[in-house]
Structures are given as structure tokens and as C-alpha cells.
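Researcher: Quick sanity check before group meeting.
Model: Go ahead. Protein one:
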Amino acid sequence: MLDVAGLRFGYGRAGFALRVDALRVDTGESVALVGPSGSGKTTLLHLVAGILTPDAGQVRVAGEELGALDDAARRAFRVRQIGLVFQEFELLEYLSVADNLLLSYRLASRRIDAAVRERAHTLATRLGLDDKLGRRPAQLSQGERQRVAVCRALVTRPPLLLADEPTGNLDSANKERVLDALLELAGEVGTTVLMVTHDRELLRRFARVVDLEEILAVGPAA
């Protein structure tokens, strides 16, 4: 599902350089990414999602070389193939929770039928959001906003799910609830999961753990 080779990326004046010589994630695999703050975990997820483009090397997702696509094609590919849970949630404040959950379908001009709405409602119920569907993000707690972001990423049943600390703002009970839903749905539909976490207690839930310090080289930009 994911094959990264010879990846190079730098922020220039910020003095940050990222190198990933090799990273492979098989279809249906659940992988946790760990590493210290500033090691480039979020940057790596954004490169895998095609939000950022590398200075060199290849990022191949589901057989598609992202570097060969222009901006519009990468956006279209991301909407169709990748579910994203951002650290800052990225919810649209002018939309209700229900409409935020269905945003990926609208961006991809995909039909929203009764089955899609039912799936969104079922996921919202599993994550304790069924009574929040008519609210706006500003009316939610941080933990509730986090759960909406997770639910939105899952509702399209994406082939690849990229999650950046999706349990970071949750208490212990909701942390387990969200991770249960995330991994169970992934297993049901064969979604590949690549998740950044600082929570060592969650690592036992994943098929594999990748320590970023073992695959990344971070330092001053050349």
C-alpha cells in the first residue's frame, strides 16, 4: 500500500531536513509510528498524503507515484484513496458535525445515498457523537472535535488511513473507544493504518511499530 524510497525534504531557512531511505507498509497492515518531538512525523505523513512534495525520492501509494501527479491530481487521489486525521482536526466551522462527516464525499463529487448516511450515523454512534450531529465544531469540546475528525476519516472506508495523534486529546476511556473503532473498521474493510502516537500504552494494539529514529535522519538543511 505504501512504499517510500530515497525520500528527501527540507524546509530551507527553517534548517530542517528529512531523509527516509526506505519505508514500506503492506496492504491491510496497522503500523504505529513513534519518535521524539521534532523528528518529522507530521511532515512524513503530509508527504505520504501528497500535501507536501519531496525534493527527491519516491512516495508510492496503492501503486500510484505521487510525484508524477500535478496538484489537482494529487488532491483528487487523496480524497479518493486516503483518510486523514490531522493534529489540529481541520473541521470546517461553518458546517454541522453531520456535514463535516460527509465532506470527503462532496469534495469528490460522490453520491451521498442512504447507505452512506447510515454508515456515518453508525460511526458517530460508536464514537459517542450521535447527539452532536446538528452542532457546529465551535460547540464541541476538544475531545469531541477529535472524535469527529476520526469519524470523518473513517466514513469513506479509505484504502489508507493516516492519523496524526488521533487520541491525543482524549481521556483513557475515549482513547480506547476511538482506537477500537479505528482498528476494527480498518480490519473489516482492509484499510491500511499508519498512525503517529506518543502513547506507548497503545502500541500493543498494532501489528507493527516503527521507531522513526531508526528510519529518519533529521538535522540542519544542507
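Researcher: Fine. The other one?
Model: Protein two, sequence then structure:
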Amino acid sequence: MTAVVWILNGPNLGRLGKREPDVYGTASYDDLVAACAATAGELGLSVDVRQTDDEATYVGWLHDAADGGVDALVLNPAAWTHTSVAVRDAAAALTAPYVEVHLSNPLAREEFRHVSYTAAGALGVIAGFGLDSYRLALKALAARI
């Protein structure tokens, strides 16, 4: 049976390649989806890659994942990482393992980005490697599920 991994992306990630390319790189959101799909295929995983700018939708996806049918998750809550207790509480209800990812390294940026509300429940955090952050997260999860 193929393991199912949800990759949930938060606000502004749909603007990749256009928004602050000096920070987030020039790869587009479509490039991110393609990289995740290719890596998942190599690892024998099934992925569902999603992005929303709506916090309620993101929390709803976390609730759906907590209700089952998902073997693991890759979470990039983006700005909600540093601001949302609602996202933190929804992630805390997950029973499947997750890895938090970030394209840039939050610890090398503004001080408010140094706090993650969701990292404590994660298997690990991978940050600063652009699209490779997602590839590394999928490899880490594949080795553990």
C-alpha cells in the first residue's frame, strides 16, 4: 500500500518566483509541486500538494488530516508559523508525523520569524534549502513511515 503524504502550504507560497525572489528563489509554485511529485514518485509515496492564503482552510485541512487517511505531512505554514495559535493547536491534534519546512532560513531573518508555534510537534524542521527543503522532508518521512 502506498503511503499518503499531504504537503500543506500557507499564505503567499502561491506567489513563489514573483514574491521576494532574493529571499525565496525564482522557482514558481508549479515548480514546487513538480519537485514534490517527482521526489514522491522516486520514494514510492503518494502526495497531495495544497496551498491556501486562508487560515480557516489550512486549519480545516489539518483537522481532516487528524481524522485519518494521511500517513504523514509536510507543513509549511509560512507566516502562520510565527503568528497562529489556531494552526499550532490544529497541528497538535495530528496523529500522523509531520516535518515543518521553510524555503528560507527563518533564523537568519527578522527576529519575529525566530519563533515557530508548530515546530514543537514536528519530527523535525528543515529550512533554508529552497525546494530541497521539501525533497529532504519527503525523504525523511519515507524513511520513517
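Researcher: One line on it for the slide.
Model: The mean pLDDT is 91.
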